[in-house]
Amino acid sequence: MKQLLALIMILSAFSVSADVAGQVMIDQPYVRAAIKQQRNSAAYMHITNQGDNAYLLYAKSPVADSVELHTHIDDNGVMRMRKIEKIDLPTQQAVTMEPGGLHVMLLGLNRDLKTGDEISLTLGFSDGSEKNLKVPVQMRYRAKKKAKQESKTLQDKPKMITH
Amino acid sequence: MKNYKPLFFWIVVICFFTGILLAQQYLKKQGSDLIPGSGGNFTLQSDRGPVSLSDYKGKIIALYFGYMSCPDICPASLWNLSEAIKMLTPEQAEQIQGIFVSVDPDRDSPHALGLFVKGFIDSFVGLTGSKQEIDKIARQYSVVYEKVPLKDSAMGYVIDHSSVIYLIDREGVLQYFVPHDTDPESIRDDLLKLLER
Ligand SMILES: [Cu+2]
């Protein structure tokens, strides 16, 4: 009986992890606090794919009218946000979604997102599987440039940006 | 040929610094309003009526250009700035005025901007105006911004923009450009330099 139980457990574990949703690990998800008037916010996280190559195809949440996958391109200091069709999740790799880069964009917020709240977020993967997350609302940001760095003075800036 | 390399280097260096000196002379003569990128005064609308930079003469101004639909770059900049100000003593913090200028007047009303900025620090001011007014100020501060339609996105359009916190001294003179992803400690250090003047 014990052996049968063990077999069932192994089989069920196998069937759970067979789809992409079962093979990805989500670390430190958070969504940025926002007031309704801002209309939008974004969710960030680390996604580690322990299965075969896959990709994140869509996301949805009850707090927003629509949810899209976006990235930011830093074009010589000009930040260009763009919609993307999918986020690649290569096998055995961690993909980082963070401010200024890849993010899950929440568009048309139907309520304020206050620090300490939690929102539901569903991630949809390339094989059609879905993962439901509870994502905490936070106000924090990690500044990218951790190291001490001097801000530029007017005198240090030989060329002005013109358009 | 190799021997000419250092000479060439020094010529470049000398030309560079001569250019800066000339530019400074020019700035002094012409008044800062006239030179693109040199900053200067302007007036825009807040939730409590028109606001001019010159209203805050005697204070240090931290000025940022962005838009409210921006999911992280703009709020992150304001957050880093507000964290920097919170590291100061209350007396020092009182002498700093944070100003957010929206380059998206079609979507961002002065009222909504007021709500947005007060979420960071209560004294922050949110401003916007007509496209013509904003374009003129963008030239003054060398702000690059461009409305870009986003195909198949519920956003409709985004605004690509340069992301810099401009630190302006008590006399209204632009002193520092702070890149948007600068950590709060570095911003605080820049604010302290201006406070000590
Ligand atoms: Cu986005």
Order of helices and strands of chain A: HHEEEEEEEEEEE
Largest sheet of chain A: 10 strands, mixed
N- to C-terminal separation of chain B? 48 Å
Which shape of chain B, going by the Cα principal axes?
globular
Unreliably modeled segments of chain A: 146-150, 154-163
- For the record, the CATH architecture of the largest domain in chain B stands as 3-Layer(aba) Sandwich
List the total number of helices of chain A: 2
Describe the structure.
The complex is a heterodimer of chains A (163) and B (197). Chain A is mainly β and 163 residues long. Chain A has helices at residues 2-17, 20-23, and strands spanning 24-32, 40-49, 54-60, 64-75, 78-83, 87-89, 93-97, 103-109, 118-125, 130-138, 152-153. Chain A has one domain (19-138): PCu(A)C copper chaperone (Immunoglobulin-like, Sandwich), CATH 2.60.40. Helices cover 12% and strands 48% of the residues of chain A. In chain A, strands 1, 2, 3, 4, 5, 6, 7, 8, 9 and 10 form a 10-stranded mixed beta sheet that branches. In chain A, strand 1 and strand 2 (40-49) form a beta hairpin. The termini of chain A are far apart. Helices cover 39% and strands 24% of the residues of chain B. In chain B, helix 2 (73-86) crosses helix 6. The longest helix of chain B has 27 residues, at 4-30. Residues 24-34 of chain B have low confidence and may be disordered. Classes of the chains: A mainly beta (163), B alpha/beta (197). At the A-B interface, strand 2, strand 4, strand 5, strand 8 and strand 11 of A face helix 1, helix 2, helix 4, strand 7 and strand 9 of B. Copper (II) ion is lined by residues 42, 70, 81, 103, 105 of chain A.
Topology summary:
The complex is a heterodimer of chains A (163) and B (197).
Chain A: H1 2-17, H2 20-23, E1 24-32, E2 40-49, E3 54-60, E4 64-75, E5 78-83, E6 87-89, E7 93-97, E8 103-109, E9 118-125, E10 130-138, E11 152-153
Parallel strand pairs in A: 1-10
Antiparallel strand pairs in A: 1-2, 2-7, 2-8, 3-6, 3-9, 4-5, 4-8, 9-10
Chain B: H1 4-30, E1 43-46, E2 49-52, E3 60-66, H2 73-86, H3 90-93, E4 96-102, H4 110-118, E5 125-127, H5 131-140, E6 145-149, E7 157-162, E8 164-168, E9 174-179, H6 184-196
Parallel strand pairs in B: 3-4, 4-5
Antiparallel strand pairs in B: 1-2, 3-8, 6-7, 8-9
Helix pairs in contact in B: 2-6
The complex binds copper (II) ion.
The site of copper (II) ion has 5 residues of chain A, from strand 8.
